[in-house]
Amino acid sequence: MIYIGAEEIISPLGETAAKNFSAMAENRTGISLIPNAGFNKISVHLSKILSLPQESQFENLTASMLISVSGKIDKNVLSSAKTILIISSTKGELKDNMTDPFGQSVASLMARFELVNQPIVISNACVSGVLAINAARNFIAARLYEHAIVIGCDLISDFVVYGFQSLFAMSDEPCIPFDANRKGISLGEGCGAVVISNTVSIFKESPLKLLQGTSANDANHISGPSRTGEGLYRSVKKTMEINQISDNEIDFISAHGTGTIYNDEMESIAFDRLSLTDVPLNSFKGYFGHTLGAAGVIETAASIQMIRKEILVKSLGFSETGTSKVLNVITENKKAKLHTILKTASGFGGGNASLIIQKL
To answer: Which of 16, 17, 222, 347 suits a disulfide with 127, CB 3.0-4.6 Å?
Structure first.
C-alpha cells in the first residue's frame, strides 16, 4: 500500500493546512482587488500573498514548506537516500531569472536541507501538480524510492497576469466556476505539499491511501479544451478501471473548475460521459484562485483536509448552473463521511490528469 498525508498549504488564507481549511469552512476567499497589478496598471482580482518578501519568493516559499512538512513526518525522512523531492510549478522563480527559473532554488534547497537526491521539477501547465503526485506514487511503486515529498508552488508575476489578460481569460470579479455568470479565472499564488510513502509509520498524523492515477492528452488546442472532454474522460476512465472503482463509489470530486466558459463546459461533458454528474463536486478556485502548477497539490491537500474534517466545502460563488450538463455542485457546507475522492486537473496543450485517494 502507498500512503499520502502530511499535507500543508501556504496561501493568502493562512500559512498552514489547518488555517486554510478553517478559512474555507467559513467560506472566506483569498481573492481581492489588487491595485495596478494588470497591464496598463489596471486593477485586477488576484489571490496574492501580500506578505512575501520581494526577492527569492519561490525559494523562500518552498523552503518554508519543507520546514513545515518535515515537522509532520519522521525527522530522518528528509535527508534519506530513499527520499525524492518533486516540485511542480509552471514558472518557478521566473520573475528573478528568465533563463533558469528553477536552478538556483533547487540548488539552495539541496544544500540547506542536505538532500541526497537531485530534486525533480515537473512543469507541464496546470496539470503539473496532479502529474507530480502520480509520478511520486509510480516511483515508489517501482521501488526507486520509499518516500516522496511533493511541493506545488507558483507565483503571480507580470508575465502570468499579462499573458492571461491577452487571452481575455481573466474575470473582472472573483471567479465563480461552473456558474452561469462566470467570466473567467482569478489567478492565485501559493504553495502546497503532500508526502507519499510506502511506510505508514513515518507520518505523525494518520495518512490516507493513494491509488494509482493516470494522465491523458487530447492535443485539442494549445490553450483551448476539447469540446467533448476527451482527454479528461480518458484519464478518469482509466484511473477508475485500473483501481476497479465504480462511479457510485466516488464520494466527492475536486474538479479543476477554472471559471472559464470552455473549461467548465468541457469538464461537465466529461463527467457526464463518466456517469459522475450526481457525485458532489466543487472547485477550490473560488478560495485560492487558479494557482496553475501548484493547483493540483494545493487542492489535493485541501481535499485531504475535507476527508479528515468530514466536511464538504461548497464551491464558492456558485449559484446557478452554467454548463450544458448539470453537475452536483456543492452549494452549502455540510457534514459528510468521505471515503473515496477523485481529483482532476486539466491544462493548456490538452493535458489532463486524475488521481484517487481513499480513507484507510
So the answer is: 347
State the Cα–Cα distance between residues 9 and 301, nearest whole angstrom: 7
Query: pLDDT class for 224, splitting at 50, 70, 90?
Result: confident
Q: Name residues whose C-beta falls within 8 Å of residue 360's C-beta, 6 or more positions apart in sequence.
A: 206, 207, 208, 209
Cell numbers representing residue 141 in the block: 511503486
Residue bearing cell 509552471: 90
32-34 β-sheet, strand order: 32-34, 44-47, 187-188
Reference 117, options 86, 90, 142; nearest CA is 86
Residue 124: what residue type?
A: N
191 three-state secondary structure: strand
Residue 54 has pLDDT above 90, yes or no: no
Q: Around Cβ 159, how many Cβ atoms within 10 Å?
A: 12
Are 77 and 145 in contact by the 8 Å Cβ rule? The answer is no
| Distance in angstroms (rounded) separating the CA atoms of residues 177 and 47 | 15
Amino acid 220: pLDDT: 83
DSSP state of 323: S
194-212: pLDDT as tens digits:
999 999 999 999 999 999 9
Q: Between vectors from CA 228 to CA 315 and to CA 332, what angle results, nearest 5°?
A: 10
The average pLDDT across 112-136 equals 97
pTM > 0.90: yes or no: yes
Q: State the Cα–Cα distance between residues 154 and 311, nearest whole angstrom.
A: 27
Q: Are 230 and 274 in contact (CB under 8 A)?
A: no
Amino acid at 167: L
Indicate the SS3 state at residue 215: strand
